[in-house]
Amino acid sequence: MLRFLIASLGRHDADDAFQETFLSALRSYERLPPDSNLRAWVLTIAHRKAIDVHRGRERRPTPVAELDESAAAPPDVPKPDHEQSDLWKRVRTLPPRQRAVLTLRHAAGLTHAEIAAVLDCSEEAARRAASDGLKTLREELLDVPASA
Amino acid sequence: MSLHPPDLLDGEAAALAARTTARAADEGAAEIAYARIDGPAGRLVAAVTPRGLVRLAYELENGGLDEVLDRLATKLSPRIVEAPGRLDVVRRELDEYFEGRRRDFDLELDWGLVGDGFARRVLEAAIAIPYGSTSTYREVAGAAGSPNGYRAAGNALGANPIPIVVPCHRVLASTGGLGGYTGGLDRKRLLLGIEGARGEQLPLLSSP
Known about the structure:
The complex is a heterodimer.
Chain A: H1 2-9, H2 11-28, H3 38-59, H4 69-72, H5 82-92, H6 96-106, H7 112-119, H8 123-141
Chain B: H1 12-26, E1 32-39, E2 42-49, E3 52-58, H2 65-75, E4 80-82, H3 88-98, H4 118-127, E5 135-136, H5 137-143, H6 150-158, E6 171-172, H7 185-195
Parallel strand pairs in B: 1-4, 5-6
Antiparallel strand pairs in B: 1-2, 2-3
Helix pairs in contact in B: 4-6, 5-6
């Protein structure tokens, strides 16, 4: 869940979103049917928190620059992989569904079936959003303008 | 190009989890906060609710941590978090007790696992036994309002969810034997020894 939130929001906002997700999960845990998929359930909550944060950012008149993660880390711990964190930064600029699918698949490790349950869409739609998102990323990396 | 899960920094997840569970306990999102407490009587699992100390379990004698928490989840609430900061007062008072520097506990108790019936009155009668002295199952049953109910009193003491703080170890068999104990008789001897209660005369083995 933490890796998903870092991928989706960056380290700074992931911290608060993690706490909010955990508190929400605790409050609604008793209403969860016994045989539920706990991982998908928790990530559904985390996904909704992430959407709230992204919406909040869009409402802000001037986007606040994301903190440089490597600068925030103490010198004696390994630095986050720059290439990867740059890639996730690009994922954050994708349309909401593509962003959600890629973070749920590659940061949280959910299956496409689980992702479909989290996003309340078909498995096929989840796969398509994933492949669209990856295509856009590849085009951006090759500096080819993404075709709409 | 491939996407990998973001790396976590050393200790990042653990620190965040600790801050989150502490917040959950403070804001009431969690009903029960627990911590493990080590001492001369072995490892204890202590659990508090907003009302007070609700459980103090000898971890190994109660099937391990998961078993203790499962029972709390079933009987009280599944909203349980590990939040050692919430158990600081309990830990300090237990430490002082084990070091012989504390005779009475100043802790609020939550009787949620006991209810309001005879068992509750028996445990309250046990609390009334002063530090360093002992009573019998029959006397405790009488104090709880049922002089003939010593077997039921024994069951209630055996099921005491808050041993040590509710001093069921001060209740002995009328015959002079140790009786039973939820944490095993070695621990009953240990606690009575700390309190200096009949320390020299205690039989090493209880009569069967």
